[in-house]
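Deliverable D4.2, example record:
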Amino acid sequence: MRTETQAGGKKRIVIVVTVVVLLVLILCLSINIREIEITGNERYTSEQIEEILFPDRLSRNSLYCYIRDKVRPHESIPFVQEYRIVFRGPNRVEVLVYEKSVVGYVSYMSSYMYFDKDGIIVESANEKLSGIPWITGLKFGQIVLYQKLPVESDSIFEEILNLTQILSIYHLSVDKIQYSTYGEATLYIGDIQVVLGSNESLNGKIAELSDMLPILEGRKGTLYLDDYDDTGASAGYAFKPEK
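Output generated by the structure prediction step:
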């Protein structure tokens, strides 16, 4: 009799536990992510990141999203180093995006190879990315993804980084930076070519360029800033219109 009572008690406990587990599971499956905040993204819009990471109804389920984020490899997103999904509540998550640092790209075998400040090729793409300059004039050998761009002198990467950072300070976007065999740079901004010459006094040259670009808007030609000097001895700079 006691054995039957104990067996019946265990059976009721199993049923209760099963019901509780099912109720908890149903409750968890009914909780969906309703608010998604994307931070750290510049190359992609928040809508694009959201579409990549949460493409369907299942991916927006809080429990499924949490388990998937912990046990499965993250989605591979071009120009994104990594991302983190942080739960700010049962219905709200924040996606922290860490983008790859890109300072320029070179053309190689009908592809565009993007590199970081150290010259490491971080991405290969079939399209140009806006806001990143095309670097020409560099001599290099075979390019391998995630390895350094094989150029004659690594100092060129420091020069490119320095130039692009100064351009960023003045909020100037260039289409192309061309380097001569002597390491002298020429900028291409729309229909304007800007001859910078050597890498000396770059900050002053770009400051002058920033002041002169509004005056040159709508014109075609070449602006020569290669004779710039910090003493202010130059009365002006030559602009040669395109015929």
